Amino acid sequence: METPENLRYSSDHEWAARTGTTVRIGITDYAQDALGDVVYVEAPAVGSTVSVGAAIGEVESTKSVSEIYAPVAGTVIAVNEALADHPELVNADPYGEGWLCEVAVEGEGGFDALLDAEAYRALTD
Amino acid sequence: MTMTHPAAGGKASSAPLMGRAAEPTIFELSQPGRSSFQFRTTGVPPRPAGDLIPSEFLADDVVELAEVSERDLVAHFTRLSHRQFSVDLGAYPLGSCTMKYNPKVCDTIASLPGLAGVHPGAPASLTQGWLEIMVSLEAALCEVTGMASATLQPAAGAAGELTGLLLMRAYHAARGEERRRIIIPDSAHGTNPASVTLGGYDVTTVPSDDRGCVDLAALKAVLDTDVAGIMLTNPNTLGLFEEDIAEIAAAVHDVGGLLYYDGANLNAILGVVRPGDMGFDIVHMNLHKTFATPHGGGGPGAGPVAVSSRLTEFLPGPRATKVGDRYDWVTPPSSIGRVHGWHGNALVLARALAYIEIHGGDGLRKVSERAVLNANWIRQRLSTVFDVAFDRPCMHEVVLSLTTLRKDHGIKAIDVAKRLMEEGFHAPTVYFPLIVDEALMIEPTETESLQTLEALAQAFELIAAEALSDPDSLHAAPRTSPVGRVDEALAARQLIQTFDARPQP
User: Fold this and answer.
1) ipTM for the complex?
2) pLDDT (tens digit per residue) in B324-368
């Protein structure tokens, strides 16, 4: 199970990567493995505002439907359009091509309170 | 001591799954000009459809129906039926679904011409017997659940859930209150949040504690006067009894909310404890689970809803009611209206009453006692083979977790479930409840004998041994069935809803 050092994590199994005021969000390798084959991803609407812990989308696998919670607060500025036709990217490349959306944050937007890789590994071991 | 043959009870290894060729669709069997019927010659001249029906209502394309002879038609569906696993064929431990055997006598009673031949629109004066059946069933269901009155109209469990939520809304509205939230535990059946949403409410989820029950502190933290009620299953979907139910009921009632009992697991408590005595206000029953009416397969179903006296005035109507020494249809004063076109699926209701009358009160109690005993026998027996999610006495079903098997050997719950079918048993429920990782949920029901339980346990043991010795074969299971492992992910990602039966070049 991969848990890249350069990312931050929520206890709900989302990852977050910050570049300036933009935070890219996805679900972790642990989450995609637990869900199994992902068959549908519902992303938030561009322009919507999200708060920390709010449901921003859904990921449906052959086993279940799970909500995706925002790890940071801000405004959704981009979603990964590729997931509409290729939800399997979440399984194949959760930290890369399987990203979900990007949020513009004001200030740190809750990013600093997220877990680091070591703490997330401890949570999922 | 009586010796029984080890095969007594048995498994469905003799299911007539002859050959492994796929059965063609009915359209592939079609030959132009063949027919399974012929109309009588009436002398009425045929007329084009356009002469009889306004053109805007006519479809543009002619629907291509299969043209097959009666002989080929019967053979096709008989072959398909022989490829089904059914309750009549063998043990069906599909957790949460209570797939018990249905006694045939109930079908016999429902087939009596005096019941089956009556038009639902016939007036009460000509259908006193039918009304008596409905009044008697309502009384029996109220006695079992500890409630005051019931509607028999809802066509299935989910329809019962929606009816219950509409009753909740009507109750609060009559008090001038508009409450918006319904609380549901994270172990709930998926129908609960769906019904809440359909009923116009918002869902608030409460977590389970480390014993698998509602986290009481978390529940109290979300309770306020915006809460219309809580939906609970008891025993819950983990097969565990909610031991704090009295305290939960008091807390919800304290803020003016109502308690809704999801009757999916009622088969565990008949004659032992009643939802009404636990503090519930609304109870739906899945008659096919608890009272042995037809399971699934498109129904028809029946999901009666029983309520406490303060909700009786809101029940759907008309209800069969005893008026003096006669029976009549009466609509409650503040009724939410009809939830079914007629009086519910009446022949299903007749079966349920037959089942209840045949068993009697003591018999129904034995049903639940044996359902719980069988589940605990399986739990105890398999606890040395698999991890039990919450290893303490369960009610009518037990939830195993295959997390360890998956981590160490790459074997998932779905692999074990698929492989079990080759051993002559229906698969257990997998991946539910959602809060248990790699869940395998087994509900043997009271109708399986000790010998069948033994055979089922041995099948699981065999599969657990294979998981260590030959995991690849488990990934490929089932291999002996007419249809092997289906790629469910591909099917869901690239959904194709049509089938082209024309010969492909």
Assistant:
1) 0.81
2) 999 999 999 999 999 998 899 999 999 999 999 999 999 999 999
CA B497 to chain centre: 26
Alpha carbon of B237 to those of B35, B218, B427: distances in Å?
49, 19, 17
Nearest to B293 by CA among B121, B95, B109: B109
B486 touches A: beta carbon within 8 Å = no
Is A8-107 assigned to CATH 3.40.50.720? no
- Give the mutation candidate from B202, B407, B493 for the A interface (greatest A CB count, under 10 A): B493
Amino acid at B18: M
Judging contacts by C-beta atoms under 8 Å, the chain B residues touching residue A36 are 412, 489
Give the pLDDT score at B393: 96
d(CA B178, CA B166): 13
- Sequence-distant (6+) residues with CB within 8 A of A9 are A3, A15, A16, A28, A71, A114, A115, A116, A117, A119, A120, A123
What pLDDT is attached to residue B52? Answer: 92
* A1 and A30 Cβ atoms separated by less than 8 Å: yes
Same domain, residue pair B305 and B373: no
Centroid of chain to Cα B258:
24
Nearest residue in B to A84, CA atom: B493
Q: Are B93 and B460 in contact (CB under 8 A)?
A: no
Please tell me whether residues B418 and B317 are part of one structural domain: no
Pairing of strands A14-19, A74-79: unpaired
B406 plus B388 within the same structural domain: yes
User: With contact defined as beta carbons under 8 Å apart, do B93 and B442 qualify?
Assistant: yes
Q: What are φ and ψ of residue B226, in 5° steps? A: -90, -5
Q: How many domains, chain B?
A: 3
List Cβ neighbours of B254 (8 Å cut-off, separation of 6 or more).
Answer: B223
Give every CB contact of residue B72 below 8 A, 6+ residues apart in sequence: B29, B34
* CA–CA distances in Å: residue B344 to residues B136, B318, B320, B465: 15, 11, 11, 49
Domain interval for residue B30: 1-45
**What pLDDT shows up at residue B37?**
84
* Domain at B447, CATH number: 3.90.1150.10
B window 435-464, beta carbon within 8 A of A: 437
Distance CA(B91)–CA(A58), nearest Å, equals 36
> Cβ B489–A64 below 8 Å, yes or no?
no
**In chain A, where the domains are located:** 8-107
Q: How far apart are CA B50 and CA B53, in angstroms?
A: 5
Same domain as B345, residue B420: no
Any domain includes B89: no
Q: What are phi and psi of B488, to 5 degrees?
A: -65, -35
CA distance A5 to chain B (A): 23
Are the CB atoms for A27 and A14 separated by under 8 Å? yes
Inspect the interface and report whether the beta carbons of A62 and B488 lie closer than 8 Å: yes
Of B329, B359, B389, the one marking the end of a domain is B359
What pLDDT, in 10s, does the model give residues B198-216? 999 999 999 999 999 999 9
